[in-house]
Amino acid sequence: MADKAKFIQELYSRYSAKGEYITLGKGMLDGEVVTEVDVKIPLKTINRHGLIAGATGTGKTKTLQVFAEQLSHLGIPSLVLDIKGDFSGIAEPGAENSIISERYAKTQLPYQPQAFPVELMTISGEKGVKLRATVTEFGPVLLSKILELNDTQQSIISIVFKYCDDKGLPLIDLDDLKKVLQYVTDNPQGKADLANNYGSIAPASLGTILRSIVALEQQGAAQFFGEPSFDVEDLLQQRDGKGVVNILRVGNIQNQPQLFSTFMLSLFAEIYMNFPEEGDSGKPKLVLFIDEAHLIFNEASKALLNQIETMVKLIRSKGVGIYFITQIPGDVPENVLSQLGLKIQHALRGFTAKDRKEISKAVENYPITEYYKADELIQNLGIGEAFITALDEKGIPTPLVHTYLISPESRMDILNDAEVSDLTSRSALVAKYEQTVNKDSAYEMLTSRMEQAVQNAPPTQPTRPVKEEPGVFESVMKSRAGRTFTTTLAREGAKFVLGMFGLGGRRR
Ligand SMILES: Nc1ncnc2c1ncn2[C@@H]1O[C@H](COP(=O)(O)OP(=O)(O)OP(=O)(O)O)[C@@H](O)[C@H]1O
Ligand SMILES: [Mg+2]
Question: What is the mean pLDDT of residues 434-442?
């Protein structure tokens, strides 16, 4: 039997905080809840990031719910990437049942069922706040990364952005970008203009870029690019003193990896550019939770993976904490894992040799403990129990503590359709981002502006006669890849395809 008095003394002091903190649960020793030991996480260290891991059904998402609730109580907003769609219940009060009352009785903490302020958000057209960015805001660098362009193609994209900048052509959505690409490729004047001022561009490269854009659109990215673009400050709302829990439902990540990566890159970039430096001092400004994070690491583009690593490093000083929720710690790349301050480890199952390897790896990374046989206990933790190690206010890792987590105060289930409709119809933020700038008019405006701008531009050099070559857009159509896209897109309507490639009535 471990020395309980010593346990209480040691753990109590290492898990107390001078400043503000959140409470996740109570310590446990020899399978019993020790009410004297509150497992507190100092707010000061929330921006040092973390991991919630554990086998399926062990309570990771509920822990995330408790975490987000506790932050909300202190006025701290969060953004939850809800990949399984099982998180929305936080907007409604919980219902007491025997499991919950028993749990709270053991912790001797009061159960106060309550709802939390929620904004539902979407990148793919479901109900909620529409998160968008303009192509200009997204910029040539990220765009090239997301399109997985090579250096040559990337420099072409940069030239095209520069051209648009010089000519005052706003790039709002992907149609705008395609229109410009078409103009500088197939229109003799556009072609000459670009060649004279920025050097000539190989039509083949433009064709490749175009195909990448079409592939991106097929994952639904057309909806993501547009106006009004999302202001990341809107993630920082409070209501009645509670931080708003922003929930982004991203159910279809397997089929839309590029769209999802686009969103994440854009979010990181916007946060980085818009949030001021906060240092390590105060409380976090925003906490980002990524549930089912293994999907992100599995499906994400290389661009996103590199960016995550960099952003985890940089975003801390902006007062933003990132928490990855996944089954095994090994799902998170080593260089990200090593930067995480808080580890909440639910039970792991040791079925296979690989499982057992993961277990010993997880245990090896914990502070040495005299109170638990960590490698055994980790496989036998109950649902809603976890090993926790955090950082104290000085940034020193706290001892490993077997924790009995509290239950969420909000509903441990999802919202029904009527509740979702009600929530989104009452949201001022939904209304703010609802109106889509008419795509046709943006596109038309650009067309006429493009022509006008070119006409009004001071003559740079006498325009050289341009040899008539088959248009790139026509070549794309004829190429194998182009045909594949056409076949797929045919389902979406032949008119769209023809219009997109500039092969509508005008040219036929
Ligand atoms: N803190 C808790 N208090 C009360 N019940 C809990 C708690 N944590 C988990 N549970 C119970 O366990 C169930 C599974 O929890 P949860 O959905 O959080 O698991 P998970 O680890 O996220 O699983 P998955 O990997 O499948 O997403 C919950 O529906 C709930 O009944
Ligand atoms: Mg879950």
Answer: 58
Instruction: Name the more confident of 374 and 310.
Output: 374
- Confidence grade of residue 407 (pLDDT, cut at 50, 70, 90): very high
Q: 94 pLDDT band (50/70/90 cuts)?
A: very high
Residue 407 near ligand 1, beta carbon < 6 Å? yes
All CATH 3.40.50.300 domain ranges in the chain, comma separated: 4-131+228-400
Atom of ligand 1 nearest to the CA of 86: 17
Angle separating helix axes 151-167 and 135-146, nearest 10 degrees: 170
Higher model confidence: residue 185 or residue 400?
400
Residue 396 to residue 48: CA distance in whole angstroms? 12
Q: Which atom of ligand 1 is nearest to the CA of 58?
A: 21
- Within a 10 A sphere around the Cβ of 419, how many other Cβ atoms? 15
Return the residue whose CA atom lies nearest to atom 9 of ligand 1: 59
In angstroms, what is the span from residue 336 Cα to ligand 2's centroid?
21
Any bridge partners for residue 344, and if so which? 52, 388
Index of the ligand 1 atom closest to the CA of residue 412: 29
What separation in angstroms does the CA of 121 have from each of 81, 130, 244, 492? 10, 6, 12, 26
Could you tell which of 26, 39, 61, 388 is best to mutate to test the pocket of ligand 1, judged by most ligand atoms within 8 Å of the CB? 61
pLDDT tens digits, one per residue of 439-476 = 443 466 557 756 665 676 655 444 333 333 444 433 33
94 touches ligand 1 (CB under 6 Å): no
Residue 26 Cβ contacting ligand 1 at under 6 Å: no
* pLDDT at residue 119, as a whole number: 98
Q: Confirm or reject: Cβ of 56 under 6 Å from ligand 1.
A: yes
Binding site membership of 384 for ligand 1 (Cβ less than 6 Å): yes
Is 345 touching ligand 1 by the criterion CB < 6 Å? no
Q: In this structure, how many other beta carbons lie within 10 angstroms of the beta carbon of residue 238?
A: 13
Beta strand extents in 123-251 (DSSP E only): 129-130, 238-239, 242-243, 245-249
Judge whether residue 275 has pLDDT over 60. Answer: yes
What is the DSSP-derived secondary structure letter of residue 183? H
Q: Give the range with max mean pLDDT: 31-40, 201-210, 310-319, 495-504.
A: 31-40
What integer is the mean pLDDT of 144-158? 90
- Give per-residue pLDDT as tens, 473-490: 333 333 333 333 333 333
Which candidate, 197, 157, 192, 193, places its Cα nearest to that of 178? 157
The CB of 103 under 6 Å from ligand 1? The reply is yes
Residue 290 near residue 268, CB atoms below 8 Å: no
**Res 405: pLDDT:** 98
How far is the centre of ligand 2, averaged over its atoms, from the C-alpha of 260 (Å)? 19
Q: Which CATH number fits domain 4-131+228-400: 2.60.120.260, 3.40.50.720, 3.90.1860.10, 3.40.50.300?
A: 3.40.50.300
